[in-house]
Amino acid sequence: MPQPVPFQTVLAALRDDSRPFPPRYLHEFSDLTPENLQALLETWPAVSVARKRSLLEDLETLHEADTLVSFDVLAKPLLRDADPQVRAAAIRLLWECEDTDLIPAFIEILERDSDSQVQATAATALGQFIYLGELEEISQALLQQVEEHLLEAVNNQTNAVLVRRRALEALGASSRPEIPALIEAAYDRPGPDWKISALFAMGRSGDTRWEKLVLANLRASNDEIRLEAVRAAGELELTSARASLLDALEDEEDADIRREIIWALSKIGGPGIQERLLELLDAEEDEDEADFLEEALDNLAFTESLFPFGMFSFEPKEEDDDDQRARQN
Description:
With 329 residues, this protein is an all-alpha fold. The protein contains 18 helices and no strands.
């Protein structure tokens, strides 16, 4: 962790467009004290829009790489920034924040923001609270509030398509009975975009009813459809996808999809996966890719510690007529 520097030095560097902003200062925006937040907000109008955008982009990258930093204190007041790219970046910095006080703010942005990209980003952020509600970590009243506003966003024909799609994706984790029909309708729409969102929602649902549709798209010609199908197979832990995903590792050319295949296999577990990932690791020369493979192997070990292979490998007993009548009675 870099040594702290006087925050006024950080702010001076932020205002100075003649020099690149020093990356070592980025950590100073984590867990801002009230005094430093106030100083930043007073300085913010003097910072160029380009510098604001690049700063938040760098903070997003740092947040993804370092789980110990938190930019929630910074991001919350920036939800009202004049620049839509700043507002969207602020929402993304809050995607993992579980503070329910954000729900009204995200709903207002979803329904009232002047920029559809920002609205769509808010819809995605609300998906976090759907998931928390399904885990009973927020009240049912709050969960219902989020669901109702997202359902309205999906069904509002005047909304931009991207906003409606992101709202559907956010609803994927909801157990409300009307959600599967919305996902099916999206899947059946012409063009790839709605199908991509439907597959994303399927993966979030935890519902294996979508198994056949997910499997049918593992070798889709459209890269984005294929990627979401692979991701959904992993999220749903579809053992029926294992062989197809192992085969896909042999000829998949897209690096992002290849990573998704590896991660999906680490979530599914079962025979042949550890051996294949170890082979890939042994042959890998790129350090970042090797690190990723090691993470996947760690995740595979976790998966198989929870569900040892063979634990559920049994054939259900066929019932004769007497068995069926006894069960019905």
